[in-house]
Amino acid sequence: MAKPTFNPSRRQWLQSLVLVPIVNAVPARAQQLTPTPAGPPCRIGFIRHYEPFSFLDDNDHLIGFDVDVCRRLCQLLGRPMQIVAGTPSALQTSLQTGALDWLGNQLLITPDNRRKYDFVQPAYANIQLSCVQHEDDQRDFLSLDDLVGKRLGVLAGTGVEEQARAALGNSVIGFEHIEQGLYALAQQKVDAVLEENLIAEYYIEQYRWPIKVTAPFAAPHTLGLPVRKGDQATRQQLATAIETLLRDGSLKTISERWFGYDVSRRQVSPAL
After folding, report:
1. Mean pLDDT throughout 250-256?
2. Bridge-partner residues for 35, per DSSP?
3. 3-state secondary structure string, the chain?
4. How far apart (Å, rounded) are the C-alpha atoms in residues 193 and 178?
5. How sure is the predictor about 268, in pLDDT bands with cuts at 50, 70 and 90?
6. Radius of gyration of the chain (CA)
7. What pLDDT digit, counting tens, does each position of 162-217 carry?
8. Quick check: bond before 27 cis, omega within 30?
C-alpha cells in the first residue's frame, strides 16, 4: 500500500502563498482536444497548492482537475490559457483590478462571496462532505449518531472537527493533513473519515487504497466559477462554454482521469 509524501495542509496553503505567474505551462495530463487557439489569452487565477484541483507537478507545472477544465473552457472560447497561481486574497485583488479574467477554482456561493464576485452557473462538479470507510466495512454510518463510540478521522482545525467533537468527544481524531486520515483508514486504524467526496475519490484513484466513499453527510456545496463583479460578458461566455463542456463529454473525460468517475453526477444527501 503506497503511502504519500504529505504536502502542507490547506490552512497552510492559504497562509503562505504569494502571487506567481506561470505562463504556458502544459502538463502531461492536459487535454489536447482542439488546435492551439489564436485569440487573446484568458488570464486565469488558481490556488497554487490545492491538490487535486490545482497544484505543481515534479516539473513545476501547475496541473489539476480545475486546470484541465479551464484549459478545455479556453479551447471552447478559442483562446489560449495563461495561468496565474497565488493565494485567494491575492487572486481576488487581481480579479477585481482586471488583471485576471476569472478564478479557475470553483468557490462556495455564500452571501459573503456574492459580495465579492459574480458566479458562473452551472457548476461542473458536485462536491459534498461524505463519509469514507474501509472497502470491507459494510456498516451504515449515515449521521454522527451512528458514529458514537467509533474512531472518526477529520481534518484538524475545521468546522467539521468542531461539530464532530461536540457530538462524539474524544473518539474524534484530528489529522493535520487529510491524507494521513485516509491512510489511517486504509490501515483500519480509524472506523471512518469525513471529507469532501472529490478529495477522497482522488486519493482512492491515485493510491488504490482499500477505502470507499459511502454516505453523503451534507447537501452538495453550491459552487461556481468566480468572475469580476459586473463582468456579464465573461460570465455569459463561460456559462455557454460550461454547458458545452457538460454536453460534449469532455467534462466526463477529464473527471474520469482525475477521480475515476463522472463528477457532474449528483448524490443523495442526508443531513449531518
Report:
1. 94
2. none
3. CCCCCCCCCHHHHHHHCCCEEECCCCCCCCCCCCCCCCCCCEEEEEECCECCCEEECCCCCEECHHHHHHHHHHHHHCCCEEEEEECHHHHHHHHHCCCCCEECCCEECCHHHHHHEEEECCCCCCCCEEEEEECCCCCCCCCHHHHCCCCEEEECCCHHHHHHHHHHHHHEEEECCHHHHHHHHHCCCCCEEEEEHHHHHHHHHHHCCCEEEEEECCCCCCEEEEEECCCHHHHHHHHHHHHHHHHCCHHHHHHHHHHCCCCCCCCCCCCC
4. 9
5. very low
6. 19
7. 999 999 999 999 999 899 999 999 999 999 999 999 999 999 988 999 999 999 99
8. no
Could you tell me the CA-to-CA distances from 77 to 34, 40, 201 in Å, in that order?
Answer: 11, 10, 30
Rounded Cα–Cα distance for residues 16 and 39 (Å): 34
Q: Which triple of cell numbers denotes residue 255?
A: 473527471
- Best CA proximity match to 73, nearest among 104, 99, 109: 104
- Our CA angle for 18, 39, 22, nearest 5°, is 20
Contacts of 219 (CB under 8 A, 6+ apart): 128, 269, 271
Closest by Cα among 13, 253, 224, 254 to 102: 224
Contacts of 190 (CB under 8 A, 6+ apart): 151, 152, 153, 173, 181, 184
Q: Which residue has the cell 478545455?
A: 72
